[in-house]
Amino acid sequence: MSNELAATSLPTQPDTDPTVGRFLDAVWMERGLSTNTLAAYRADLTALMRWLSLRQIPVLRTSRQDLQDFIAWRVAAGARPRSTARQLSSFRRFFRFLLREGLIQEDPTAQIAMPKIGRSLPKSLSEEEVEALLAAPVVRDPLGNRDRTMLEVLYATGLRVSELVNLHYAQINLNQGVIRIIGKGNRERLIPLGDEAVRWLTEFVRGARDEILLERQTDYLFPTRRGDRMTRQAFWHIIKRYARKARISKGLSPHTLRHAFATHLLNHGADLRVVQILLGHSDLSTTQIYTHVASERMKDLHGRHHPRS
Fold first, then answer.
1. What is the pTM of this model?
2. One domain for residues 59 and 148
3. Full residue range of the structural domain in which residue 23 is found
């Protein structure tokens, strides 16, 4: 591809193609994908449609060479391997859809290799750091009691933060010690809470939760002082505040306790597929990254097991 072609700017507005709309409708119906995933598909395909339109290449006549030229154009513009891999994944699903619909005779992505990308290791905490973080809230205060309970549940279950803040009271069964989660793709999973999380939850719903609500009603398990649902961002600020109090200096993310949950389970000998189910990963390869973090089993367990019991 010439330098002149690579330097050509794309039009401000994309030339839309009805096949993209049909594809997005189909994958949403088939897979129950999240809004973010659908938005990523739309953005990736919009970029490709702009590029094809500028070169007067019909979508249904897109060749493997056209896609390779597009990828080369993106790389020359500074696209990173991870971004390129995500776009190529979107294109694969799109052209396979066109093939299934009988709109094309051959999948132009079939012989294109995915770029190799290094997977970044998730940030985690040692068990001692987790204990310090859990001990940071002042549990005499109703909000501190709520925060401690949220941290205990997060570490005991490996929930996503979005799943935690959206928990409804009806999703927990304290008698059976399980929590019911509807995760990505509307997949349901039952997760054991462990004795410690059950104890904190039982105390919270019997006392501090009512003190926070003050006669107000809500279905959400962990309400704010206003009786509203806590936002993901608000809980992230709570984690950072307690991390500072616990003198944890390493960089954290909203999923740090989720990563600690998985890593510590593997350290204690849990089966990778069990961890996959608990985390709600659809693909085992997503869970396998934790084997790099938990590369060695703990030699001395001191009679403790994780989740906290």
1. 0.56
2. no
3. 3-100
**Within a domain: residue 118?**
no
The question of whether 255 is a catalytic residue gets the answer yes
pLDDT in tens, 31-53: 666 777 888 889 999 999 999 99
Token duo for residue 208: 């501090």
What are the φ/ψ torsions at residue 73 (nearest 5 degrees)? -65, -40
Would you call 290 a catalytic residue per the annotation? yes
pLDDT level of residue 199 (50, 70, 90 thresholds): very high
How many domains does one find in the chain?
2
**Statement to judge: residues 275 and 207 lie in one domain:** yes
Catalytic residue, candidates 148, 290, 306, 308 = 290
User: Choosing from 86, 146, 160, 308, which is the catalytic residue?
Assistant: 160
- Active-site entry in 50, 258, 264, 308: 258
Domain with residue 281: its CATH number is 1.10.443.10
CA distance linking residue 165 with residue 230, whole number of Å: 6
Of 50, 259, 281, 306, the active-site residue reads 281
Say whether 281 is catalytic. Answer: yes
Q: What are phi and psi of 189, to 5 degrees?
A: -145, 145
Question: pLDDT, tens digit, for every residue of 98-153?
Answer: 999 999 999 998 877 766 555 555 567 788 888 898 899 999 999 999 999 999 98
Same domain, 257 and 149: yes
Is the separation of the CB atoms in 172 and 179 below 8 Å?
Answer: yes
Which residue matches tokens 């950072």? 240
Which two tokens mark 54?
Answer: 């500028």
277 within some domain: yes
Are both 83 and 137 inside the same structural domain?
Answer: no
